[in-house]
Amino acid sequence: MTQRKCLFLILFLLWARVSIVDDGWAASLPKSTEEMLKKLKLEANILSNIDKELEVPKGWLEGAKGEGKLRIYHTMDPPQAEVMFRPFKERFPFVPIEYSRASHEDRAVRTLVAFKNKRIVTDIITGLGGSFFLYKEAKALEDMRNIPNFKNNPEGTVDPEGLWVGMHMRYWCMAYNTRRLKREDMPKRWDDLLTNVKFRNGNLAIGNRPQLWALALWKANGEPWAKDFLAKLFTEVKPQLRREGMNANLELLAAGEFDATIPAAEYRSYQKALDGAPVSYHCPEPVPVAVSEMGILKGAPNINAARLFVNWFLSTEGQIAQYVGDYAPPVHKNLQRKELVPFADQIVGKKDAFRDPGVELEIQPKLLAYWDELWLRGGGKTRGR
Amino acid sequence: MWVASRPLVWHSGIFLLVLVLVLVPLIFLVLGSFSTARLPGDFSLDTMGWINYVKVYTDPGTYELFTNTLVYVGGSSLFGISLAVTLAWLVERTNLPVKLWIYAGVPMTLAAPGMLQAMAWVLLLSPRIGLINKWLQDLFGLEHPPINVYSLGGMIFLEGLRLVPTAFLMLVPLMRSMDPALEEAAAVSGARPLSIIRKISLRLLAPGLVAVMIYQLMTALEVFEIPGVLGLPAGIYVFSTKIYAIVRSATFMPVYGQANALAMVYLLMAVVTTYFYARMISRSEKYTIITGKGYRPRQLNLGKWRYPAVILVFLYLFLAILLPFAVFVYASFLSYVQTPSLEAFKGMTLKNYRLLAEYGEVGAALKNTILMVAVTATATVFLSFLVSLVVVRSKFWGRKLLDQLAFVPHAIPGIVMGIAFFWVFLKIDFLPIYGTVWAMAIGFTVSFLSYGTRSMNASLLQIHKELEEAAYVSGAPPWRTLWRVFLPLMLPTFVGVWIWVVLHAVRIAGMPLMLYEGPQNQVLSILIWNMWDEGYVPAVAAIGTLLMLTLLLLTLVVRYVGFRQQFMQAPNV
């Protein structure tokens, strides 16, 4: 056999192996997963490790079969959640899910009030925001370090004690109305916001959730900068101080109540833009980044099903399904890709400011005290107290 | 003698039940106001102190609350009653040509829940996106929007509009039954029409008007939905919304004791108002204006003012029901909120209605709502009937006290009742009530007990004892007397009270917001509130459109089946 023939033979065998393995993956994937990969134009071998990722102790599987409906409190709209759950349901048809879209108040306060009253109203809770320390104080969360895919998350996106695990990246920047502002009007750095006259006279709105964005900036740029920036923002730019939730502010932005709003999340802005609303998204530098938390309530009656779900959710498949559901950027180490970040041109490649829970405990009280003073002086009211 | 007349065990049982249902929450409310524990579940007698009162009443913001509440309640009552008096006078005492429209149209406005009306008016009068503001700006070339609905003025305007139908229904009989002799004498003596209205008609009406005024003050004081939708975004608090804001902090664990401490003053204001109202009612015979003489009230000829009067009437109907409904229908077909334009109409979609079908929570909330209102209405009818039976028909020693106890909830604003029951249910955690729709059903049943017993008392008084005595001497057992005598005779009242309760329980958000734990006991009013708060405006418009249509149909059915009198019954003027 000539060298040339040998080379062809080797190439043929390699091709055949890749094809067979590809087909093998495809055959082992749930139908909904295949559709998702197709929709996102992702190569099938992105899930080459999925079977290993989904290996769990047998006891969990057996235990889950004997449990009731797995209850999940999340922020997704139910139709979006339904899309996300499809692969999980195909893989684990014996785990029925009772999904509830729960407001921040439901998740952060009511669930904890119920827990303290010995009532477990959900098995899985997500997006605790600034309330994690209250849950920790109440010993309300399970240690999830025994969940195999816990290790899939990058450093800083899980709790060292395993009480929470990041479920997606969240970029808290600003959204703007494309009929009122152009991309070139937008500030390159946060300081530019103070000098651009287009944002004055109530054209800019800010929501009363400084912990989502200003906290990360405080950490990145230091306390003196943060205080000076916020003071000038309130006194010189004089934004509209909005009491509504961040999603409501996006709706108002689309309607033209103001020209731009801070903070805004990339995935919600993207959904709004897909709806045809005149909304786009922009990140001045540094980009405030956070992860949203997911946890299992201590004493959850459906603990095995909850572990199965969290493990699946943190897998490559779960993270892709989440993105298809509501465009939330994955947190999985292997999925940090531009095509899985909405408005990637506004985020990827820019300097970022990461908010971790340590910052929440250390800086948040100082930030909130300072913010409240500015907010009240600016004509806003306290966060209800 | 028939069973109701004899002091039996069940008389004491009913007395005890009402005593527990009414007083236990109030006791917990008071105790909770002294609790220094963060959560009701952690409360014990060792954790009591004055700290909540000190914190609440040393806060300058609390005094702003008094001013806001007084301005809001006074302003809206004044506006609402002025409009209602005008409408009632136009239909009863003038030759206005479109009376049927008013008789039919004004009660229809009851079909629109306050929360939805407020949301609709946000879409109309919000400073920047409000359709009316935009049109006014375009029309007059104004630089700034002329109206801001997020203000005390906006709250007064809308609550005033909402007070009109009840006040109207209370005033119509008063106007109709006025003896025209004095007015006719004045007219014959050459007095001008306006002078007759001012010096005679209004003075004759004054006692009834004061009663209506006090009733409306009580209603406005209690309302949570209007200040919740219009005041909260602008940071304008009244008592009901401040209590909500304390309890529903999104960032920190709420301090429930402070909410209780604030609720005490709110409760005191409501009790004082109710006291004056009850006093007014008890002396009603002093203000009698209906005599035994046959007469027909004189109809004033409006002359050239007929057409402005017609315009006024239609303007009211347009503002109170047509406009809010139209804006909801429009918004329900949008992808996102936008002013009407060719582009907006081109982009119209059914996706919000589809979302309702796919949104699992809507189905769950609907199921919870149906269960909650059905249980509440049935329990209210049943309990009210039994209470009234004891009060009106028995010689039970505590019957007067029982009657007064049943009236007490009338003085307790819904949100205060909600927080009181919240404490009760969290403390009695051996009964799994908190976090279920039963919690709301119990709270509402107690709340509506005063209305139920007033209606049942009136109805029972009209049934002569001879009927039950005849049944008794014929050997009919008590259950048969109930079945064959009371049920057929009181059926219209039962149905009237049942539907009245359904219509009110489905629209009120204040109490459910206190007793709601999560999606598992979410009812429609809470779902709407949460979705609005989180920016699902077109979806809320879709739910609102369907809900308003349903309630409108229910209102029409009530009128059609002839229970109008019970359903629309003005509460004891």
Written overview of the protein:
The complex is a heterodimer of chains A (385) and B (573). Chain A is of the alpha/beta class. Chain A has two domains: 47-169 and 291-340, D-Maltodextrin-Binding Protein, domain 2 (3-Layer(aba) Sandwich); 170-289 and 346-377, D-Maltodextrin-Binding Protein, domain 2. Chain A contains 16 helices and ten strands. Chain A has helices at residues 3-28, 31-40, 50-53, 58-65, 78-91, 104-116, 132-137, 192-195, 214-221, 223-237, 246-255, 266-274, 303-313, 316-326, 344-347, 357-377; strands spanning 70-74, 97-101, 124-126, 165-177, 204-207, 240-242, 260-265, 279-282, 287-296, 352-355. In chain A, strands 1, 2, 3, 4, 5, 6, 7, 8, 9 and 10 form a ten-stranded mixed sheet that branches. In chain A, helix 5 (78-91) links the parallel strand 1 and strand 2 (97-101). In chain A, helix 5 (78-91) packs antiparallel against helix 14. The longest helix of chain A has 26 residues, at 3-28. Chain A is globular and about 70 Å long. The N and C termini of chain A lie far apart (85 Å). Chain B has 573 residues and is mainly α. Chain B has a domain at 48-290: MetI-like (MetI-like fold), CATH 1.10.3720. Chain B has helices at residues 9-33, 51-57, 60-93, 99-108, 114-125, 131-140, 152-176, 181-188, 193-222, 225-231, 239-247, 256-282, 306-332, 342-346, 351-358, 360-393, 399-407, 414-427, 437-461, 465-473, 478-505, 510-515, 524-533, 537-560, 564-567. In chain B, helix 7 runs antiparallel to helix 10 and helix 19 packs across helix 21 (478-505). The longest helix of chain B is centred in the N-terminal third of the chain and has 34 residues, at 60-93. Chain B is globular and about 70 Å long. The two termini of chain B are 34 Å apart. Mean pLDDT of chain B is 85; it is low at 563-573. Chains A and B meet through helix 5, strand 2, helix 6 and helix 11 of A and helix 23 of B.
Give me the secondary-structure topology.
The complex is a heterodimer of chains A (385) and B (573).
Chain A: H1 3-28, H2 31-40, H3 50-53, H4 58-65, E1 70-74, H5 78-91, E2 97-101, H6 104-116, E3 124-126, H7 132-137, E4 165-177, H8 192-195, E5 204-207, H9 214-221, H10 223-237, E6 240-242, H11 246-255, E7 260-265, H12 266-274, E8 279-282, E9 287-296, H13 303-313, H14 316-326, H15 344-347, E10 352-355, H16 357-377
Parallel strand pairs in A: 1-2, 1-3, 5-6, 5-7, 9-10
Antiparallel strand pairs in A: 3-9, 4-7, 4-8, 4-9
Helix pairs in contact in A: 2-14, 4-13, 5-14, 9-10, 9-16, 10-16
Chain B: H1 9-33, H2 51-57, H3 60-93, H4 99-108, H5 114-125, H6 131-140, H7 152-176, H8 181-188, H9 193-222, H10 225-231, H11 239-247, H12 256-282, H13 306-332, H14 342-346, H15 351-358, H16 360-393, H17 399-407, H18 414-427, H19 437-461, H20 465-473, H21 478-505, H22 510-515, H23 524-533, H24 537-560, H25 564-567
Helix pairs in contact in B: 1-12, 1-16, 1-17, 1-18, 2-12, 3-7, 3-9, 5-10, 5-13, 7-9, 7-10, 8-9, 9-12, 11-12, 13-24, 15-24, 16-17, 16-19, 16-21, 18-19, 19-21, 20-21
